[in-house]
């Protein structure tokens, strides 16, 4: 075990130990959350000690909770009584054994099994003036002392709790399908002959930071030339948990000075790489869940498996590549305008879905 993650309560009576903070969704199962809570029972009195795991969706500022406005919705909660020992008897794994050695005789092992239908961790990029926890879907393991597991009338002070945020993540599968393809046939403005545009990708899934060759085939039968090719990538975030809030943000926009004369053909792969580094100022952009100030990336595409309920996923993320062939001037309209007049342009557009994910780490 390379690293132990440890968090103590303010009074030092309970200490939480985890061997990792990233838990992988393997589609048919999720890595179990195995940990140890060290408990000093000396000053407990009539209180018990609980360990709780929560998947929650935060969609408002944390400071507003103080005035009675709660902008947090629990998607899934599980609570286990650890002291006095009750009926939780996890199978002791090698990770448990290592953590129990760290905690000593007062260590109590626990295991949570994350359901496969829960969303992965997603953070919405905060603005410069935003404070507190960012909006998004997060997972948390919390140890605390209380008379009851969940009594709203019982006040639990912060010094009696310890907590660690963890992440549920998903990696791209080893095998990937064929890439998407679209063919369009459309005429430019003021041209009676069409332009044939075919756009396709080599594969179905691309990794974050991997260059994406967008392949184009153009047959220009019109009387207008293509002056440039514009490629954009849009991220669409669909917040399905509390409302039909759906918005789109551009994460890449590049222009290529490639020309296709009237009557000519063109074939080329134009490379693009959408990166978070070029979108740091965009408030509300969906990112893969982040732990404190660690680096992250654009949110991975949400994979909806058959039978999954959309509402429980909280935030759905998808991407779209748009290719525009831009033409200007020429033809009948161009002949009627002076050289100083603004150029009238028209586009021929094709769109492709894009799946962005993280690769599986090498064993």
Task: Characterise this structure.
Strands 3, 5, 6, 8, 9, 10 and 18 form a seven-stranded mixed sheet that branches. This protein has a five-stranded mixed sheet with strand order 13-20-19-15-16, with no helix packed on it. The chain has a four-stranded antiparallel sheet with strand order 1-2-4-7, covered by helices on one side. The relative contact order is 0.17. The protein is elongated. The two termini are 14 Å apart. The protein is built from two helices and 20 strands. With 363 residues, the chain is mostly beta strands.
The biggest beta sheet, please?
A: 7 strands, mixed
Q: What sort of overall outline do the alpha carbons produce when their principal axes are compared?
A: elongated
- Compute the CA-based radius of gyration: 27 Å
Order of helices and strands: EEEEEEHEEEEEEEEEEEEEHE
Broad structural category: mainly beta
Mean pLDDT: 86
Number of strands: 20
Low-confidence runs:
63-69, 330-345
The share of residues in extended strands comes to 35-45%
Helix content: under 10%
Cα end-to-end separation: 14 Å
| Count of helical stretches | 2
Question: What is this structure, in a nutshell?
Answer:
The protein has 2 helices and 20 strands. With 363 residues, it is mostly beta strands.
Q: Which labels suit this protein?
A:
363 residues; mainly beta; seven-stranded mixed β-sheet; 2 helices
Task: Detail the topology: elements first, then pairings.
Elements lengths: L4 E4 L5 E5 L3 E4 L7 E7 L8 E11 L13 E12 L10 H10 L3 E6 L9 E3 L11 E11 L14 E10 L10 E7 L6 E7 L4 E3 L4 E9 L5 E14 L5 E12 L8 E8 L13 E3 L26 E14 L2 H6 L8 E13 L6
């Amino acid at each position: 075990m390379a690293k132990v993650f440890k968090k103590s309560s303010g009074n030092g009576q309970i200490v939480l130990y985890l061997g990792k903070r990233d838990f992988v969704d393997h589609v048919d199962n999720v890595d179990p959350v195995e940990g140890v809570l060290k408990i000093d029972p000396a000053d407990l009195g009539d209180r018990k000690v609980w360990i709780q795991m929560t998947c929650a969706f935060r969609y408002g500022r944390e400071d507003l909770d103080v005035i009675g406005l709660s902008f947090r919705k629990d998607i899934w909660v599980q609570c286990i009584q650890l002291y006095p020992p009750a009926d939780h008897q996890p199978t002791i794994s090698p990770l448990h054994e290592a953590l129990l050695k760290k905690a000593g005789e007062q260590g109590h092992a626990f295991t949570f099994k994350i359901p496969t239908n829960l969303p992965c961790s997603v953070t919405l990029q905060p603005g410069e003036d935003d404070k507190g926890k960012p909006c998004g879907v997060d997972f948390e393991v919390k140890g605390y002392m209380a008379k009851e597991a969940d009594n709203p009338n019982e006040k639990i002070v912060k010094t009696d709790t310890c907590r660690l945020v963890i992440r549920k993540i998903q990696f791209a599968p080893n095998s990937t399908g064929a890439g998407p393809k679209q063919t369009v046939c459309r005429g430019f403005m003021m041209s009676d002959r069409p332009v044939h545009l075919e756009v396709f990708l080599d594969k179905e899934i691309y990794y974050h930071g991997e260059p994406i060759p967008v392949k184009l085939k153009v047959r220009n039968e019109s009387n207008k030339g293509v002056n440039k090719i514009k490629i954009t990538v849009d991220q669409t975030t669909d917040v399905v948990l509390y409302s039909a809030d759906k918005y789109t943000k551009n994460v890449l926009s590049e222009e290529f000075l490639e020309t296709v004369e009237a009557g000519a053909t063109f074939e080329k792969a134009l490379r693009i790489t959408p990166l978070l580094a070029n979108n740091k100022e965009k408030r509300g952009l969906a990112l893969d869940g982040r732990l404190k100030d660690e680096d992250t990336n654009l949110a991975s595409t949400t994979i909806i498996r058959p039978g999954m309920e959309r509402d429980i996923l909280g935030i759905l993320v998808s991407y779209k590549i748009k290719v525009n062939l831009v033409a200007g001037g020429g033809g009948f309209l161009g002949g009627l305008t002076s050289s100083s007049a603004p150029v009238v342009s028209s586009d021929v557009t094709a769109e492709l879905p894009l799946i962005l994910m993280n690769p599986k780490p090498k064993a």
